[in-house]
Specification:
two-stranded antiparallel sheet, endonuclease activity, tt1808, chain A
């Protein structure tokens, strides 16, 4: 899915020249539509209990869910938000939704951590910004700023193949 999001795809038309479609305009970030939804709820149709999963914030780029963000207070901590992000990706929850997600962000009032889908908790990176900014303001002014986000997704997420598994890895963003 990430390959399609990054590279687009060619569409063949019978009797006409093929066309290439890019889902995201990385060259001109302002030409994309970015929308943030709060308390986005989904239900896994395969889950017999039909239990709903709620994500604190989801950032969509051109209608594609790109970023999943969980917030916790400082008493609970960012690691609890990471745990929740990972639980969302479980097959009994909404794992198919996370096939589109490029970046997962865990935030508490004092720290922000980020990773990609299925990144183990110990490999989440700490986002460091200006110490005078609160963590939400720092997110909005840095990594979630449209031009920065699209550059990060296109240039700083890479893949590593180990055994029979391909892992999506987010580089450190500073």
């Amino acid at each position: 899915m990430t390959k399609l999001i990054l590279l687009g795809e060619g569409l063949e038309q019978k009797g006409k020249p093929s066309r290439h479609i890019n889902y995201i305009d990385y060259e001109n970030p302002s030409k994309n539509s970015l929308i943030i939804t709060e308390e986005f709820s989904l239900t896994n149709a395969k889950n017999e209990q039909k239990k709903s999963t709620r994500i604190d914030l989801v950032l969509f780029v051109n209608g594609i869910p790109f970023v999943s963000i969980e917030f916790k207070n400082s008493c609970v901590g960012a690691n609890e938000a990471i745990k929740q992000l990972l639980n969302h990706q479980h097959p009994d929850r909404i794992e198919n939704f996370y096939k589109f997600i490029q970046l997962c962000i865990a935030n508490c009032s004092t720290i922000t951590k980020y990773g990609t889908t299925l990144t183990p908790s110990k490999f989440y990176n700490v986002f460091k910004g200006k110490s005078s900014d609160d963590s939400v303001k720092m997110l909005c002014n840095n990594i979630l700023k449209p031009s920065n986000l699209l550059e990060f997704i296109s240039d700083f997420i890479f893949f590593s193949k180990s055994k029979d598994k391909t892992n999506k890895i987010a580089s450190r963003y500073q």
